Amino acid sequence: MTSNEVRKKYIDFFVKRGHVEIPPAPLVLENDPTTLFTSSGMQPLVPYLMGEPHPKGKRLVNSQPSVRAHGKNDDMLEVGDNRHLTVFEMLGNWSLGDYFKEEQLPWFLEYLTKQLGLSRASLWVSIFEGYKNIPKDIVSFEIWKKLGIAENRILYYDVKKNWWSRSGTPDEMPTNEIGGPTSEVFFDFGENLGIHEKSPFKVDKCHPNCDCGRFLEIGNSVFMQYIKTKDGSLKELPQKNVDFGGGLERQAAAVNNDPDTFKTDLFFSLISIIAKNVGEDYDKSGNKNAYRIIADHLKASTFLAVNGVVPSNKEHGYILRRLLRRAIVKTHLLNSEIDPVPMFWQLAQETTEIYDDVYMDSKKDGKIVGEIFKDEVEKFNRSLDRGLKIINTKEKIGAKEAFDLYQSQGFPLELIEELMAEKGQKIDKEEFKKEFEKHQEKSRTAGRGMFKGGLGGHSETEIKYHTATHLLHQALRDVLGDHVHQAGSNINSDRLRFDFTHPTKLTEEEIKKVENEINSKVDEDLKVIREEMPKEEALKKGALAFFPERYPDMTSVYTIGEVDKPYSMELCGGSHVTSTGVIGRVRIKKQESVSSGVRRIYALLE
Asked: N or C: which end of the chain has fewer CB within 10 A?
C-alpha cells in the first residue's frame, strides 16, 4: 500500500462519517507572533475548539504538512533515529463539540484494522493517569477494553506523556490556553527483531514510550476539553472536542511492517539518491543517521523553499539555512569527495516528484528550489573545510572562537554546539551572546550617518512611484509565484528600486509579462483606497505585510481595486495616488542580484 493510498483511505474513511475535508493551512506563517511554521493540523483551529462556529461544520478532516524545526517544536536534533522528522504530514480529524471518546476511539481502531489491515495484536494504547483535580481516564480504558485490546496493553501515563497543550503540561499552560488528556496508539514491531537489545536503552525495560524504536506512535486522540483560567486552575470548555493527529509516514511504516520510516515510499527514493552519490549501501552503512538527516533536511528545505523561504540569518530563512548547512556537514562527513550541489539538486527534484499534484509542481518547483540550494551550498562550501579544520584540531572552543566561526565562516551556533558536543564540550551561550552584542555595537557605530533606504520624500512623482511599487510587487507574485516576498525598496524622483525573493534571473519574457500586467492595471485606472484598521484584522483579510513588526497595532491598509475584490492589498505607512491611471507607463530598466535568493529591479515612469 502506497503512502498516497494511506492518505486517501484516511480522508475517505472520515468523510464517510460526516466529516468535511478542509484544505491544509499555509506551512510558512508570516504574521503569527507565536511561531514561524504550522506544526500541526490543529494550529489554525484553536478558535473553533474554543467554541467559535466553523464555516464547514463540526466534523473536519485533512492532511497537514507540518514543520517542527524551531522553538518548543524543534525536532531537528532528534532526526537520525527511525522515526523523528522535521517535516511530515499530519493526518487529522476533529470534532468541534460533536462526538467524543465513545466514537473517536472505535473509529480509529476500525480505520487501523479494516482500512490499513494492521493486526489488533500489534497495537498498544496509552491513556491519562490523572493529575491534581483532573480525573483518571477510566472511560477510555473501558472503551479500549471493550474493543478487544488486552488490559496489559492499555497503559496509564502521567501528564508528561498523556496530556497535550501547545505549551506542555497543565502547570506550563498560560491563561486561556486549551488542552486535554490524550490516548495514543502504538504499533509494536515485536521482540523478535531485537530492536531494544541493540539500542542505547537496552538496560531499561522496554515499553510503548521507550525511545528504542520498537514501538511507533501512529495516532494521538486529544480530548480537548479544558481551558486554563486566570487563577491557574483548569475548567471545562463549553464544548468537548476531539483533536486527532497521526503521522502519515509512521502509519505507512506500520503498514510496511518496517520500523524505519525512511524506508517508506515518502523517503526511500531520497535515501537511494544519497546512497548512489556516497557509493555505499544504506542497509550496510555504519552511519544511517547521516543518511536520514540529509534526506529529512533536504525534504524540509524543499518544502520551505517551495513556500517562498530563502536562506538568511533570521526567522524562517535562518531555519532553512540551518537545515541546509547541517545537511552539507553530514554529506561531508559521509564522503568528503562529494560535491553536494548535484546531489541536493537531485534530492530537491525527487521531493517535488514525491509530492507532485499534492503539495508541489515538479515541473516548476524543482528548478526554483535547486537554484536556491546551489547558491547556499556554494556559499557555505567555501568556508566548510576551514571551519571543520578549526573544530577538528581543537579539544575546546571558547565563546569568542565560536563567534568567529559563526561570523566569519557562517557556521550556525547550533551546528558548532553539536560538533563540539560530540567531543564532550559545551559552548558558553552567555559569553557567545556578549561577543555577538559587541559585534553589533561595532556595526552600529560604523554605520552611523549612512543613508537608510526606503520611501524617500513625498513629491508628486515619488508618490506615483510608491503606488507603482505596490503594482510591481503584485505583478511579480502573479508572474513568478507566491514565493516572491518584498525584501526592500527605495524610491526617489528618478526611479524606484525594488528587492524581492526569487532564486533566478528573470527572463526577457517574464520581465515583459510583469511590465504588461502593471501597465494594464494603470490602464484600468483602478481606485487606490486607504483604510485604517487593526493590524490583525488586516492580516486576516489577506493584506500583505512582509515586515509586520514595523507596523503599529492600528495601521493603514492600501487596496488597489475594489475592497471586496482587490488586485493588491498591503499594509503601508506611505502616501499614494488616488487611482492608478495617473501613474503613467512603467518600464523595467534593469535587474540584478542582491544576494543569494534576492533579486533587485529598477523601474522608471515614462
From this structure: C
Superfamily holding 460-605: Threonyl-trna Synthetase; Chain A, domain 2 (3.30.980.10)
36: CB partners within 8 A, 6+ apart: 28, 29, 70, 71, 315, 316, 319
Could you give the CA distance from residue 582 to residue 113 in angstroms, rounded to a whole number? Answer: 67
- Chain centre to alpha carbon of residue 167: 18
Q: Which residues pair with 222 in a beta bridge?
A: 182, 243
Phi, psi of 333 (to 5 degrees): -70, -30
- In 3D, which of 226, 228, 217 has the Cα closest to residue 175? 228
Residue 176 DSSP one-character state: T
Residue 553 to residue 548: CA distance in whole angstroms: 10
Place of cell 471586496: 564
- Bridge partners, 280 (sequence order): none
**Given the DSSP bridges, would you call strands 123-128 and 154-157 parallel, antiparallel or unpaired?**
parallel
Domain range summary for the chain, segments of one domain joined by +: 3-262, 266-447, 460-605
Tell me the average pLDDT across 162-182. Answer: 92
Give the span between the Cα atoms of 195 and 268, in whole angstroms: 20
Angle between helices 399-409 and 413-421 (to 10 degrees): 130
| Residue 502, SS3 per DSSP | coil
Name which of 586, 572, 487 is nearest 530 in CA terms.
572
Q: Helix or strand or coil: residue 168?
A: coil
Residue with cell 464547514: 56
CATH of domain 3-262: 3.30.930.10
- Note the helical H segments in 355-482: 362-392, 399-409, 413-421, 429-447, 460-480
Torsions phi, psi for 92 (to 5 deg): -135, 145
Summarize the confidence of residues 79-88 as an average pLDDT: 93
Other CB atoms within 10 Å distance of the CB of residue 26: 15
586-595 sheet: strands from edge to edge:
486-491, 496-501, 598-605, 586-595
In this prediction the pTM is 0.71
Cα 424 to chain centroid, rounded: 31
Q: Which of 216-220, 268-272, 484-488 bottoms out in mean pLDDT, i.e. has the lowest?
A: 484-488
Place of cell 493517569: 129
DSSP per-residue codes, 62-101: EEEEEE--SGGG--GGGBTBSS--SEEEEEEEEEESS--H
How far is it, in rounded angstroms, from Cα 297 to Cα 291?
10
382: exposed, middle or buried (C-beta count within 10 Å: 0-12, 13-18, 19+)? exposed
Parallel, antiparallel, or unpaired: how do β-strands 486-491 and 234-247 relate? unpaired
What is the C-alpha to C-alpha distance for residues 42 and 38, in angstroms, rounded to an integer?
Answer: 9
3-state class (DSSP) for residue 37? strand
Region of residue 80 (left: phi > 0; alpha: psi -120 to 50; beta: else): left
Q: Which residue has the cell 488528556?
A: 181
Cα 238 to chain centroid, rounded: 32
Place of cell 506550563: 172
Residue bearing cell 502506497: 2
174-226 pLDDT, tens per residue? 888 999 999 999 999 998 888 898 888 888 889 999 888 899 999 999 999 99
Whether residue 97 contacts residue 50, with contact meaning beta carbons closer than 8 Å, is answered with no
**Best CA proximity match to 180, nearest among 234, 144, 138:** 234
